[in-house]
Design brief:
By secondary structure, this protein is an alpha+beta fold. The chain has helices spanning 10-18, 40-43, 65-74, 101-117, 144-147; strands spanning 2-7, 23-31, 51-58, 83-84, 87-88, 94-98, 127-130, 134-136. It has 5 helices and 8 strands. The strands form 2 sheets. Strands 7-6-1-3-2-8 form a 6-stranded mixed beta sheet, with helices on one face. The chain is globular.
């Protein structure tokens, strides 16, 4: 099964998801913009509309989509619009790109539950939108933390 998340800089998100039991593979890339096959430099202009994202292949017998959402919610701030920590721009937005109606329903219910929990003082701004074409990022971005000894 496939899931796609935007939660700030894709290096950190990929590393967290890659270490999650049941995740079979991760790929970092760009999604949700208007330019086909964007480069990192183009996405960084904040003009293409893409989000940095991680596409996850997972085994639903080992981890559920709900459990992946739990990792997503716990590891970024879903209340900051187009920003995560020091990274600012539309490419760093919080987003769940769903691949079918079941994922959409689960994501919306998860978001509503988190909003009602009172865990955050500010409203959750995470987008829940259909997954358009995912463009794989340049090879030097793949498994970046592992390649540079941060993982």
């Amino acid at each position: 099964m496939k899931a796609t998340f935007g939660a700030g800089c894709f290096w950190h998100v990929e590393d967290l998801l890659n270490k999650t039991k049941g995740v079979k593979s991760t790929t970092v890339g760009y999604i949700g913009g208007k330019l086909p096959n964007p480069t990192y430099e183009e996405v960084c202009t904040d003009k293409t509309g893409h989000a940095e994202a991680v596409e996850v292949e997972y085994d639903p017998d080992e981890i559920s989509f709900e459990e992946l959402l739990s990792v997503f919610w716990k590891n970024h701030n879903p209340t900051t619009l187009n920003r995560q920590g020091p990274d600012i721009g539309i490419q760093y937005r919080s987003a769940i790109f769903y691949h079918d109606e079941k994922q959409k329903e689960i994501a919306e219910n998860s978001k509503q539950s988190l909003e009602k929990s009172g865990h955050f003082d500010d409203p959750i701004v995470t987008e829940i939108v259909p997954a358009p074409t995912f463009y794989k990022a340049e090879e030097y971005h793949q498994k970046y933390f592992q390649k540079h000894g941060f993982s």
